[in-house]
Amino acid sequence: MKMWSRCLTLVYGLLVFLTNPVLTPYGILEEGDLLRSPASRKGAPSNWLWDNRRYNYEVTTDANRSAIEAGIRFWRDHTCIEFEEVSESSHLPRVRFVAEEGCWSFVGCVSKELATRVQALSLGTGCTGLGTVTHEIAHSLGFYHEQSRSDRDDQVTILWDNIDEEFKSNFALFDTQNKDVPYDLSSVMHYGTFYFSSNGKPTILTRNPTLQGLIGQRDRPSFRDVALMNRLYRCEELCSSPPPCRNGGYVSADCVCHCPPGTSGSSCEKVLSDYYEYQLCVHEVLGCPHSD
User: Is CATH 3.50.50.60 what the domain over 23-141 is classified as, yes or no?
Assistant: First the structure.
């Protein structure tokens, strides 16, 4: 309860069938994904990002180090964020990777507001796949779930009558920082079709039925997930002359345009196909029409 009184945000990932509140050593998990105090329901605080693009962490002996390192490597390789392992005696704000029950993380860098300077991130049994690890690390870097975005209703329909009454707050909208990155049904942060269903029926339907199979994927972060992370942490500011990127491209630490699937050119100026055509292929929802 002490954690709850601090009005911090706690995320509990991927336990779709959770029905009762769970007490952990780090706070109360009342929902399968997001737990927010009334104060934090307005959105993440202005200081939620890690200072100087530096993410400090420690790994406990019971945590799956190889899975953690794979998740960290993904975000390190695709952004300008520096990941630094520190000792448990460090006084720096840091994430402590643990193996408690379930997969969960605080949202953003809350450890700099805590006397202990430590925030836990749990990767318990069944939580060590790359998609899940990168999902939880993304939460600790400041990401909320995709379906919490303020523009959610343009892309999906929430079937409120099918949602367990106890968990309807999971589907609330928030004033998120989207940084001109389009909503992404293939985001690793998106809920799946049946999350928190009370009757076995869908709780989320995509407005384009062809794209229904994309939501809830936990393979790895999508292009737009990576684009948003780079923009949140202002990676382009590390470049003396960042190139202008079109059609949803972004600049990372290498100071070149990274182009969305379906585009090409040094500034992503050529549009060859729809963004989701590639996603449907990669996630095996449909066949790959251009493959040999």
Answer: no
